[in-house]
Design goal:
This protein has about 525 residues and is mainly alpha-helical. Among the domains are: about 130 residues, Serine Threonine Protein Phosphatase 5, Tetratricopeptide repeat; about 90 residues; about 70 residues, Serine Threonine Protein Phosphatase 5, Tetratricopeptide repeat (Alpha Horseshoe), CATH 1.25.40; about 60 residues, no CATH class. Strands 1-2 form a two-stranded antiparallel sheet. Strand 1 and strand 2 form a beta hairpin. The protein is globular and about 100 Å long. The protein starts with 5 loop residues before the first helix and ends in a 26-residue tail after the last helix. One of its GO terms (molecular function) is RNA binding. This is Pentatricopeptide repeat-containing protein. Keywords: Repeat. It holds the Pfam family PPR. InterPro entries: E_motif, PPR_At4g14850-like_plant, PPR_rpt, TPR-like_helical_dom_sf.
Protein backbone atom coordinates (compact mmCIF):
# COMPACT_ATOMS: atom_id res chain seq x y z
CA UNK A 1 0.00 0.00 0.00
CA UNK A 2 1.90 3.12 -1.23
CA UNK A 3 0.08 5.71 0.89
CA UNK A 4 -2.01 5.30 4.03
CA UNK A 5 -4.63 7.97 4.65
CA UNK A 6 -6.90 8.17 7.72
CA UNK A 7 -9.70 6.31 5.95
CA UNK A 8 -7.35 3.39 5.24
CA UNK A 9 -6.10 3.30 8.84
CA UNK A 10 -9.69 3.31 10.13
CA UNK A 11 -10.77 0.53 7.78
CA UNK A 12 -7.97 -1.73 9.02
CA UNK A 13 -8.63 -0.89 12.71
CA UNK A 14 -12.36 -1.57 12.29
CA UNK A 15 -11.66 -4.92 10.62
CA UNK A 16 -9.23 -5.90 13.37
CA UNK A 17 -11.58 -4.95 16.25
CA UNK A 18 -14.55 -6.75 14.67
CA UNK A 19 -12.41 -9.89 14.34
CA UNK A 20 -11.27 -9.64 17.95
CA UNK A 21 -7.64 -8.76 17.22
CA UNK A 22 -7.65 -6.01 19.84
CA UNK A 23 -3.90 -5.98 20.60
CA UNK A 24 -3.10 -5.50 16.90
CA UNK A 25 -5.76 -2.80 16.60
CA UNK A 26 -4.35 -1.04 19.70
CA UNK A 27 -0.81 -1.05 18.27
CA UNK A 28 -2.05 0.25 14.93
CA UNK A 29 -4.07 2.98 16.62
CA UNK A 30 -1.01 4.14 18.58
CA UNK A 31 1.04 4.33 15.38
CA UNK A 32 -1.53 6.52 13.59
CA UNK A 33 -0.27 10.04 12.90
CA UNK A 34 -3.70 11.64 13.31
CA UNK A 35 -6.52 9.46 14.67
CA UNK A 36 -9.95 10.98 14.13
CA UNK A 37 -13.38 10.53 15.69
CA UNK A 38 -13.96 7.32 13.71
CA UNK A 39 -10.65 5.85 14.92
CA UNK A 40 -11.54 6.47 18.55
CA UNK A 41 -15.07 5.11 18.14
CA UNK A 42 -13.72 1.93 16.53
CA UNK A 43 -11.50 1.30 19.54
CA UNK A 44 -14.23 2.04 22.12
CA UNK A 45 -16.72 -0.14 20.23
CA UNK A 46 -14.22 -2.97 19.64
CA UNK A 47 -13.26 -3.23 23.30
CA UNK A 48 -16.93 -3.10 24.41
CA UNK A 49 -18.06 -5.75 21.88
CA UNK A 50 -15.40 -8.20 23.07
CA UNK A 51 -16.09 -7.67 26.80
CA UNK A 52 -12.98 -5.56 27.47
CA UNK A 53 -15.21 -3.08 29.25
CA UNK A 54 -12.61 -1.27 31.33
CA UNK A 55 -10.44 -0.59 28.26
CA UNK A 56 -13.53 0.63 26.40
CA UNK A 57 -14.26 3.20 29.12
CA UNK A 58 -10.61 4.23 29.31
CA UNK A 59 -10.64 5.01 25.57
CA UNK A 60 -13.98 6.81 25.92
CA UNK A 61 -12.54 9.06 28.67
CA UNK A 62 -9.35 9.69 26.68
CA UNK A 63 -11.43 10.53 23.62
CA UNK A 64 -13.38 13.11 25.61
CA UNK A 65 -10.19 14.61 27.10
CA UNK A 66 -8.69 14.92 23.63
CA UNK A 67 -11.70 17.11 22.73
CA UNK A 68 -13.07 14.75 20.11
CA UNK A 69 -16.82 15.05 19.58
CA UNK A 70 -18.74 12.25 21.27
CA UNK A 71 -21.56 10.93 19.08
CA UNK A 72 -24.20 8.22 19.29
CA UNK A 73 -21.61 5.50 18.54
CA UNK A 74 -19.34 6.69 21.34
CA UNK A 75 -22.17 6.88 23.86
CA UNK A 76 -23.79 3.53 22.99
CA UNK A 77 -20.45 1.67 23.26
CA UNK A 78 -19.61 3.36 26.58
CA UNK A 79 -23.07 2.56 27.99
CA UNK A 80 -22.65 -1.06 26.89
CA UNK A 81 -19.36 -1.16 28.82
CA UNK A 82 -21.04 0.29 31.92
CA UNK A 83 -23.75 -2.37 31.66
CA UNK A 84 -21.11 -5.09 31.38
CA UNK A 85 -19.27 -3.81 34.46
CA UNK A 86 -22.51 -3.05 36.36
CA UNK A 87 -20.98 0.40 36.82
CA UNK A 88 -24.00 2.63 37.34
CA UNK A 89 -21.95 5.53 38.72
CA UNK A 90 -20.11 5.97 35.40
CA UNK A 91 -23.33 5.22 33.51
CA UNK A 92 -25.11 8.09 35.29
CA UNK A 93 -22.21 10.42 34.42
CA UNK A 94 -22.47 9.43 30.75
CA UNK A 95 -26.24 9.95 30.92
CA UNK A 96 -25.58 13.47 32.27
CA UNK A 97 -23.14 14.17 29.44
CA UNK A 98 -25.72 12.98 26.89
CA UNK A 99 -28.27 15.43 28.34
CA UNK A 100 -26.14 18.28 26.96
CA UNK A 101 -25.98 16.67 23.50
CA UNK A 102 -28.59 16.24 20.74
CA UNK A 103 -28.49 12.43 21.13
CA UNK A 104 -30.64 12.02 24.25
CA UNK A 105 -33.84 11.91 22.19
CA UNK A 106 -32.42 9.24 19.85
CA UNK A 107 -34.40 6.00 20.14
CA UNK A 108 -31.24 3.85 20.11
CA UNK A 109 -29.61 5.96 22.83
CA UNK A 110 -32.76 5.62 24.93
CA UNK A 111 -32.66 1.84 24.51
CA UNK A 112 -28.97 1.77 25.48
CA UNK A 113 -29.72 3.77 28.63
CA UNK A 114 -32.59 1.45 29.59
CA UNK A 115 -30.30 -1.56 29.09
CA UNK A 116 -27.58 0.01 31.23
CA UNK A 117 -29.95 0.83 34.10
CA UNK A 118 -31.51 -2.62 33.77
CA UNK A 119 -28.16 -4.43 34.03
CA UNK A 120 -27.39 -2.28 37.09
CA UNK A 121 -30.72 -3.27 38.69
CA UNK A 122 -32.17 0.26 38.57
CA UNK A 123 -35.76 -0.29 37.41
CA UNK A 124 -36.91 3.20 38.42
CA UNK A 125 -34.51 5.08 36.12
CA UNK A 126 -35.00 2.56 33.29
CA UNK A 127 -38.75 3.25 33.41
CA UNK A 128 -38.09 6.99 33.65
CA UNK A 129 -35.97 6.94 30.47
CA UNK A 130 -38.63 4.89 28.68
CA UNK A 131 -41.38 7.30 29.73
CA UNK A 132 -39.35 10.24 28.39
CA UNK A 133 -38.85 8.71 24.93
CA UNK A 134 -40.90 10.47 22.25
CA UNK A 135 -40.24 7.62 19.80
CA UNK A 136 -40.02 3.94 20.73
CA UNK A 137 -39.11 0.87 18.73
CA UNK A 138 -39.10 -2.87 19.40
CA UNK A 139 -35.60 -2.58 20.93
CA UNK A 140 -36.73 -0.04 23.56
CA UNK A 141 -39.80 -2.13 24.44
CA UNK A 142 -37.63 -5.25 24.69
CA UNK A 143 -35.10 -3.45 26.91
CA UNK A 144 -37.76 -2.46 29.45
CA UNK A 145 -39.57 -5.82 29.36
CA UNK A 146 -36.24 -7.58 29.97
CA UNK A 147 -35.49 -5.09 32.76
CA UNK A 148 -38.63 -6.07 34.67
CA UNK A 149 -38.18 -9.78 33.88
CA UNK A 150 -34.66 -9.76 35.35
CA UNK A 151 -35.15 -7.32 38.24
CA UNK A 152 -38.87 -7.59 39.03
CA UNK A 153 -41.68 -7.19 39.49
CA UNK A 154 -42.13 -9.80 36.76
CA UNK A 155 -45.83 -9.02 36.36
CA UNK A 156 -44.80 -5.61 34.94
CA UNK A 157 -42.98 -7.43 32.13
CA UNK A 158 -46.26 -9.18 31.24
CA UNK A 159 -48.22 -5.93 31.43
CA UNK A 160 -45.73 -4.17 29.12
CA UNK A 161 -45.85 -7.10 26.68
CA UNK A 162 -49.60 -6.76 26.21
CA UNK A 163 -49.35 -2.95 26.12
CA UNK A 164 -46.65 -3.19 23.42
CA UNK A 165 -48.94 -5.30 21.22
CA UNK A 166 -51.78 -2.80 21.74
CA UNK A 167 -49.46 -0.17 20.24
CA UNK A 168 -49.05 -2.38 17.16
CA UNK A 169 -45.56 -3.79 17.79
CA UNK A 170 -45.00 -7.43 16.84
CA UNK A 171 -42.91 -9.33 19.41
CA UNK A 172 -39.65 -10.85 18.22
CA UNK A 173 -37.66 -13.72 19.71
CA UNK A 174 -36.09 -11.41 22.34
CA UNK A 175 -39.52 -10.22 23.52
CA UNK A 176 -40.94 -13.73 23.67
CA UNK A 177 -37.95 -15.20 25.52
CA UNK A 178 -38.18 -12.45 28.17
CA UNK A 179 -41.93 -12.67 28.64
CA UNK A 180 -41.91 -16.50 28.81
CA UNK A 181 -39.20 -16.23 31.50
CA UNK A 182 -41.42 -13.75 33.36
CA UNK A 183 -44.26 -16.31 33.21
CA UNK A 184 -41.86 -18.90 34.67
CA UNK A 185 -41.02 -16.57 37.57
CA UNK A 186 -44.71 -15.85 38.23
CA UNK A 187 -45.75 -19.50 37.67
CA UNK A 188 -48.28 -17.95 35.26
CA UNK A 189 -49.03 -21.11 33.30
CA UNK A 190 -52.18 -19.68 31.69
CA UNK A 191 -50.43 -16.65 30.18
CA UNK A 192 -47.36 -18.73 29.33
CA UNK A 193 -49.46 -21.27 27.43
CA UNK A 194 -51.21 -18.46 25.52
CA UNK A 195 -47.86 -16.99 24.48
CA UNK A 196 -46.65 -20.46 23.48
CA UNK A 197 -49.74 -20.89 21.28
CA UNK A 198 -48.97 -17.55 19.63
CA UNK A 199 -45.40 -18.68 18.93
CA UNK A 200 -46.57 -21.90 17.24
CA UNK A 201 -48.30 -19.82 14.55
CA UNK A 202 -44.97 -18.38 13.40
CA UNK A 203 -42.64 -20.82 11.64
CA UNK A 204 -39.58 -18.61 12.25
CA UNK A 205 -39.74 -19.30 16.01
CA UNK A 206 -40.03 -23.07 15.64
CA UNK A 207 -36.36 -24.05 16.01
CA UNK A 208 -35.10 -21.10 18.07
CA UNK A 209 -32.85 -22.51 20.81
CA UNK A 210 -33.31 -19.60 23.26
CA UNK A 211 -37.11 -19.75 22.97
CA UNK A 212 -37.06 -23.54 23.34
CA UNK A 213 -34.99 -23.22 26.51
CA UNK A 214 -37.36 -20.57 27.88
CA UNK A 215 -40.43 -22.74 27.23
CA UNK A 216 -38.87 -25.84 28.80
CA UNK A 217 -37.93 -23.77 31.86
CA UNK A 218 -41.40 -22.20 32.11
CA UNK A 219 -43.31 -25.49 31.93
CA UNK A 220 -40.84 -27.18 34.31
CA UNK A 221 -41.12 -24.42 36.93
CA UNK A 222 -44.91 -24.48 36.66
CA UNK A 223 -44.90 -28.22 37.40
CA UNK A 224 -45.95 -29.25 33.89
CA UNK A 225 -43.11 -31.70 33.46
CA UNK A 226 -44.82 -33.66 30.65
CA UNK A 227 -45.21 -30.52 28.51
CA UNK A 228 -41.62 -29.55 29.32
CA UNK A 229 -40.42 -33.00 28.23
CA UNK A 230 -42.46 -32.83 24.99
CA UNK A 231 -40.88 -29.50 24.02
CA UNK A 232 -37.44 -30.72 25.10
CA UNK A 233 -37.72 -33.87 22.95
CA UNK A 234 -38.87 -31.77 19.96
CA UNK A 235 -35.90 -29.40 20.09
CA UNK A 236 -33.49 -30.08 17.19
CA UNK A 237 -30.61 -28.74 19.27
CA UNK A 238 -30.37 -29.02 23.04
CA UNK A 239 -27.82 -27.48 25.36
CA UNK A 240 -26.88 -27.36 29.03
CA UNK A 241 -29.61 -24.74 29.71
CA UNK A 242 -32.55 -26.88 28.57
CA UNK A 243 -31.09 -30.00 30.22
CA UNK A 244 -30.62 -28.17 33.53
CA UNK A 245 -34.21 -26.89 33.36
CA UNK A 246 -35.39 -30.50 33.00
CA UNK A 247 -33.31 -31.55 36.03
CA UNK A 248 -34.93 -28.78 38.12
CA UNK A 249 -38.37 -29.69 36.76
CA UNK A 250 -38.01 -33.37 37.63
CA UNK A 251 -36.77 -32.43 41.11
CA UNK A 252 -39.80 -30.16 41.60
CA UNK A 253 -42.05 -33.03 40.54
CA UNK A 254 -40.25 -35.23 43.15
CA UNK A 255 -38.87 -37.40 40.33
CA UNK A 256 -35.31 -37.34 41.65
CA UNK A 257 -34.44 -40.55 39.83
CA UNK A 258 -35.37 -38.96 36.48
CA UNK A 259 -33.41 -35.82 37.42
CA UNK A 260 -30.34 -37.95 38.20
CA UNK A 261 -30.71 -39.84 34.91
CA UNK A 262 -30.91 -36.57 32.95
CA UNK A 263 -27.81 -35.33 34.77
CA UNK A 264 -25.86 -38.51 34.01
CA UNK A 265 -26.73 -38.31 30.29
CA UNK A 266 -25.47 -34.73 29.95
CA UNK A 267 -22.37 -34.49 27.76
CA UNK A 268 -21.54 -31.05 29.11
CA UNK A 269 -22.17 -30.07 32.72
CA UNK A 270 -21.62 -26.69 34.36
CA UNK A 271 -21.94 -25.59 37.97
CA UNK A 272 -25.62 -24.67 37.40
CA UNK A 273 -26.36 -28.29 36.44
CA UNK A 274 -24.61 -29.58 39.56
CA UNK A 275 -26.47 -27.02 41.68
CA UNK A 276 -29.81 -28.11 40.21
CA UNK A 277 -29.30 -31.74 41.21
CA UNK A 278 -27.84 -30.88 44.64
CA UNK A 279 -30.89 -28.64 45.26
CA UNK A 280 -33.20 -31.42 44.00
CA UNK A 281 -31.74 -33.90 46.48
CA UNK A 282 -31.99 -31.42 49.37
CA UNK A 283 -35.56 -30.39 48.49
CA UNK A 284 -36.70 -34.00 48.38
CA UNK A 285 -35.12 -35.01 51.66
CA UNK A 286 -32.19 -36.92 50.14
CA UNK A 287 -29.68 -34.86 52.11
CA UNK A 288 -26.90 -37.45 52.26
CA UNK A 289 -26.98 -37.70 48.45
CA UNK A 290 -26.80 -33.88 48.22
CA UNK A 291 -23.61 -33.87 50.31
CA UNK A 292 -22.12 -36.79 48.38
CA UNK A 293 -22.79 -34.98 45.09
CA UNK A 294 -21.11 -31.87 46.47
CA UNK A 295 -18.00 -33.94 47.24
CA UNK A 296 -18.07 -35.27 43.66
CA UNK A 297 -18.35 -31.70 42.37
CA UNK A 298 -15.18 -30.75 44.22
CA UNK A 299 -13.36 -33.87 43.03
CA UNK A 300 -14.14 -32.92 39.43
CA UNK A 301 -12.70 -29.42 40.03
CA UNK A 302 -16.02 -27.63 39.49
CA UNK A 303 -15.92 -24.28 41.26
CA UNK A 304 -18.91 -24.02 43.67
CA UNK A 305 -21.02 -20.87 43.88
CA UNK A 306 -22.99 -19.12 46.64
CA UNK A 307 -26.03 -21.14 45.57
CA UNK A 308 -24.10 -24.42 45.91
CA UNK A 309 -23.15 -23.63 49.50
CA UNK A 310 -26.70 -22.50 50.33
CA UNK A 311 -28.05 -25.92 49.34
CA UNK A 312 -25.23 -27.79 51.07
CA UNK A 313 -25.78 -25.90 54.33
CA UNK A 314 -29.53 -26.59 54.09
CA UNK A 315 -28.80 -30.29 53.66
CA UNK A 316 -26.58 -30.21 56.75
CA UNK A 317 -29.32 -28.41 58.70
CA UNK A 318 -31.89 -31.02 57.66
CA UNK A 319 -29.64 -33.85 58.80
CA UNK A 320 -28.91 -32.08 62.09
CA UNK A 321 -32.61 -31.54 62.82
CA UNK A 322 -33.56 -33.63 65.85
CA UNK A 323 -37.16 -33.68 64.61
CA UNK A 324 -36.33 -34.94 61.13
CA UNK A 325 -37.65 -38.43 61.83
CA UNK A 326 -36.94 -41.88 60.57
CA UNK A 327 -34.81 -41.05 57.52
CA UNK A 328 -32.23 -39.02 59.42
CA UNK A 329 -32.36 -41.45 62.36
CA UNK A 330 -31.56 -44.36 60.03
CA UNK A 331 -28.75 -42.33 58.49
CA UNK A 332 -27.27 -41.68 61.95
CA UNK A 333 -27.44 -45.35 62.93
CA UNK A 334 -25.98 -46.51 59.62
CA UNK A 335 -23.12 -44.06 59.36
CA UNK A 336 -22.52 -43.16 63.00
CA UNK A 337 -22.87 -39.45 62.27
CA UNK A 338 -24.09 -37.47 65.26
CA UNK A 339 -25.82 -34.11 64.98
CA UNK A 340 -22.67 -32.44 66.27
CA UNK A 341 -20.85 -34.08 63.36
CA UNK A 342 -23.25 -32.48 60.89
CA UNK A 343 -22.66 -29.12 62.58
CA UNK A 344 -18.92 -29.53 62.18
CA UNK A 345 -19.37 -30.52 58.55
CA UNK A 346 -21.60 -27.52 57.90
CA UNK A 347 -19.10 -25.21 59.57
CA UNK A 348 -16.33 -26.66 57.43
CA UNK A 349 -18.34 -25.98 54.26
CA UNK A 350 -19.17 -22.47 55.44
CA UNK A 351 -15.58 -21.46 56.18
CA UNK A 352 -14.31 -23.11 52.98
CA UNK A 353 -16.37 -20.58 51.03
CA UNK A 354 -13.89 -17.81 51.83
CA UNK A 355 -10.75 -19.79 52.64
CA UNK A 356 -10.79 -22.12 49.62
CA UNK A 357 -13.10 -20.48 47.07
CA UNK A 358 -12.83 -16.74 47.72
CA UNK A 359 -16.62 -16.34 48.08
CA UNK A 360 -18.04 -13.79 50.52
CA UNK A 361 -20.95 -15.38 52.45
CA UNK A 362 -24.24 -13.55 52.07
CA UNK A 363 -26.88 -13.04 54.75
CA UNK A 364 -28.65 -16.16 53.41
CA UNK A 365 -25.57 -18.28 54.17
CA UNK A 366 -25.37 -16.89 57.71
CA UNK A 367 -29.09 -17.69 58.12
CA UNK A 368 -28.43 -21.28 56.99
CA UNK A 369 -25.67 -21.63 59.58
CA UNK A 370 -27.84 -20.22 62.39
CA UNK A 371 -30.58 -22.65 61.33
CA UNK A 372 -28.08 -25.54 61.31
CA UNK A 373 -26.73 -24.70 64.78
CA UNK A 374 -30.22 -24.10 66.15
CA UNK A 375 -31.69 -27.35 64.85
CA UNK A 376 -28.81 -29.26 66.46
CA UNK A 377 -29.56 -27.57 69.79
CA UNK A 378 -26.42 -25.41 69.74
CA UNK A 379 -28.36 -22.22 70.52
CA UNK A 380 -25.53 -20.52 72.44
CA UNK A 381 -23.13 -21.14 69.55
CA UNK A 382 -25.79 -19.81 67.16
CA UNK A 383 -26.08 -16.60 69.21
CA UNK A 384 -22.28 -16.15 69.22
CA UNK A 385 -22.26 -16.78 65.47
CA UNK A 386 -24.86 -14.03 64.92
CA UNK A 387 -22.91 -11.60 67.07
CA UNK A 388 -19.71 -12.29 65.07
CA UNK A 389 -21.34 -11.49 61.72
CA UNK A 390 -19.84 -8.62 59.68
CA UNK A 391 -23.38 -7.36 58.98
CA UNK A 392 -26.35 -6.38 61.12
CA UNK A 393 -28.59 -9.35 61.92
CA UNK A 394 -32.20 -8.97 60.76
CA UNK A 395 -35.48 -10.34 62.09
CA UNK A 396 -35.15 -13.52 59.98
CA UNK A 397 -31.92 -14.51 61.73
CA UNK A 398 -33.12 -13.71 65.25
CA UNK A 399 -36.48 -15.34 64.47
CA UNK A 400 -34.74 -18.57 63.41
CA UNK A 401 -32.81 -18.60 66.69
CA UNK A 402 -35.95 -17.92 68.75
CA UNK A 403 -37.75 -20.85 67.08
CA UNK A 404 -34.79 -23.08 67.98
CA UNK A 405 -34.89 -21.85 71.59
CA UNK A 406 -38.54 -22.89 71.76
CA UNK A 407 -37.89 -26.33 70.26
CA UNK A 408 -35.04 -27.00 72.70
CA UNK A 409 -36.72 -25.36 75.71
CA UNK A 410 -34.04 -22.74 76.33
CA UNK A 411 -36.16 -20.08 78.05
CA UNK A 412 -33.26 -17.90 79.19
CA UNK A 413 -31.84 -17.54 75.70
CA UNK A 414 -35.35 -17.33 74.19
CA UNK A 415 -36.24 -14.37 76.40
CA UNK A 416 -33.08 -12.52 75.37
CA UNK A 417 -33.65 -13.23 71.66
CA UNK A 418 -37.32 -12.22 71.86
CA UNK A 419 -36.32 -8.88 73.38
CA UNK A 420 -33.94 -8.35 70.44
CA UNK A 421 -36.71 -9.13 67.99
CA UNK A 422 -39.16 -6.78 69.69
CA UNK A 423 -36.58 -3.99 69.45
CA UNK A 424 -36.23 -4.58 65.70
CA UNK A 425 -39.93 -5.07 64.92
CA UNK A 426 -42.27 -4.30 67.85
CA UNK A 427 -45.41 -4.70 65.70
CA UNK A 428 -44.67 -8.32 64.67
CA UNK A 429 -46.83 -10.76 66.63
CA UNK A 430 -44.50 -13.74 66.02
CA UNK A 431 -41.97 -13.14 68.84
CA UNK A 432 -44.74 -12.44 71.38
CA UNK A 433 -46.51 -15.69 70.47
CA UNK A 434 -43.33 -17.81 70.56
CA UNK A 435 -42.28 -16.35 73.91
CA UNK A 436 -45.78 -16.78 75.34
CA UNK A 437 -45.84 -20.43 74.23
CA UNK A 438 -42.42 -21.06 75.79
CA UNK A 439 -43.70 -19.76 79.13
CA UNK A 440 -46.89 -21.82 78.71
CA UNK A 441 -44.95 -25.06 78.15
CA UNK A 442 -43.12 -24.38 81.45
CA UNK A 443 -46.49 -23.60 83.18
CA UNK A 444 -45.40 -20.02 83.94
CA UNK A 445 -48.89 -18.60 83.45
CA UNK A 446 -48.07 -15.27 85.08
CA UNK A 447 -45.42 -14.62 82.41
CA UNK A 448 -47.86 -15.73 79.70
CA UNK A 449 -50.37 -13.16 80.96
CA UNK A 450 -47.66 -10.47 81.07
CA UNK A 451 -46.67 -11.08 77.41
CA UNK A 452 -50.30 -11.03 76.26
CA UNK A 453 -50.95 -7.82 78.22
CA UNK A 454 -47.90 -6.28 76.55
CA UNK A 455 -49.31 -7.25 73.14
CA UNK A 456 -52.66 -5.59 73.90
CA UNK A 457 -50.99 -2.45 75.26
CA UNK A 458 -48.92 -2.10 72.08
CA UNK A 459 -51.86 -2.85 69.81
CA UNK A 460 -50.27 -6.00 68.37
CA UNK A 461 -52.78 -8.46 66.93
CA UNK A 462 -51.88 -12.14 66.53
CA UNK A 463 -52.07 -13.24 62.91
CA UNK A 464 -54.42 -16.19 62.36
CA UNK A 465 -52.74 -19.55 61.84
CA UNK A 466 -52.36 -20.56 58.22
CA UNK A 467 -51.12 -23.63 56.37
CA UNK A 468 -51.01 -24.70 52.77
CA UNK A 469 -50.39 -27.77 50.66
CA UNK A 470 -49.79 -28.21 46.92
CA UNK A 471 -51.71 -31.02 45.17
CA UNK A 472 -51.52 -31.48 41.40
CA UNK A 473 -49.93 -28.03 40.94
CA UNK A 474 -52.75 -26.33 42.86
CA UNK A 475 -52.03 -24.65 46.20
CA UNK A 476 -54.71 -25.11 48.89
CA UNK A 477 -54.61 -22.57 51.73
CA UNK A 478 -56.27 -23.16 55.13
CA UNK A 479 -56.76 -20.68 57.96
CA UNK A 480 -57.88 -21.18 61.56
CA UNK A 481 -61.68 -21.58 61.74
CA UNK A 482 -61.86 -21.18 57.95
CA UNK A 483 -64.91 -22.81 56.37
CA UNK A 484 -64.60 -21.31 52.88
CA UNK A 485 -62.62 -24.09 51.19
CA UNK A 486 -64.68 -25.73 48.40
CA UNK A 487 -63.78 -29.21 49.73
CA UNK A 488 -64.42 -28.35 53.39
CA UNK A 489 -66.92 -31.22 53.81
CA UNK A 490 -64.35 -33.78 52.68
CA UNK A 491 -61.71 -32.16 54.92
CA UNK A 492 -63.91 -32.28 58.02
CA UNK A 493 -65.04 -35.80 57.18
CA UNK A 494 -61.41 -36.95 57.25
CA UNK A 495 -60.86 -35.02 60.49
CA UNK A 496 -63.80 -36.86 62.04
CA UNK A 497 -62.20 -40.20 61.05
CA UNK A 498 -58.81 -39.16 62.51
CA UNK A 499 -60.50 -37.85 65.67
CA UNK A 500 -62.27 -41.17 66.16
CA UNK A 501 -58.98 -43.04 65.77
CA UNK A 502 -57.35 -40.70 68.31
CA UNK A 503 -60.19 -41.37 70.73
CA UNK A 504 -59.82 -45.15 70.34
CA UNK A 505 -56.09 -44.92 71.17
CA UNK A 506 -57.04 -42.78 74.23
CA UNK A 507 -54.98 -39.89 72.96
CA UNK A 508 -55.59 -36.82 75.11
CA UNK A 509 -55.32 -33.51 73.28
CA UNK A 510 -53.20 -30.96 75.14
CA UNK A 511 -55.38 -27.85 74.90
CA UNK A 512 -53.04 -25.89 77.18
CA UNK A 513 -53.97 -23.28 79.74
CA UNK A 514 -56.62 -20.58 79.07
CA UNK A 515 -53.81 -17.98 79.07
CA UNK A 516 -51.73 -19.90 76.52
CA UNK A 517 -51.55 -18.86 72.86
CA UNK A 518 -52.00 -22.52 71.95
CA UNK A 519 -55.11 -22.95 74.13
CA UNK A 520 -58.19 -24.39 72.44
CA UNK A 521 -61.65 -24.53 73.93
CA UNK A 522 -62.54 -28.11 74.90
CA UNK A 523 -64.81 -29.42 72.17
CA UNK A 524 -66.56 -32.57 71.07
CA UNK A 525 -64.41 -34.62 68.71
CA UNK A 526 -67.24 -34.73 66.17
CA UNK A 527 -66.73 -31.69 63.89
CA UNK A 528 -69.74 -31.23 61.67
CA UNK A 529 -70.34 -28.71 58.90
CA UNK A 530 -73.69 -27.00 59.23
Amino acid sequence: MPHKNTFTWNSIITALTKSGFLDEAFKLFNSMPEPDQCSWNSMVSGFAQHDHFEEALEFFVRMHREDFLLNEYSYSSALSACAGLVDMKTGVQIHGSMSKSPYLSDVYMGSALIDMYSKCGNVYDAQKVFNGMSVRNIVSWNSLITCYEQNGPANEALRLFFEMMEFGFEPDEVTLASVVSACATLLAIKEGSQIHTRMIKFEKFKDDLVLGNALVDMYAKCGRIKEARRIFDGMPIKNVVSETSMISGYAKATSVKAARLMFMKMTEKNVVSWNALIAGYAQNGENEEALELFCRLKRESIWPTHYTFGNVLNACANLANLQLGKQAHTHVLKHGIRHAGMVEEGQRYFYSMTQEHGLVPSKDHYTCMVDLLGRAGCVREAKKFIESMPMEADTVLWGSLLASCKVHGNLEMGTHVAEKLLELDPSNSGPYVLLSNMYAELKQWGEVARVRTLMRRRGVVKQPGRSWIEINNQVHVFMVKDKTHPQRKEVYKLLNILAAQMKRTRYVLDVGHPESETYQEPMEMDMKII
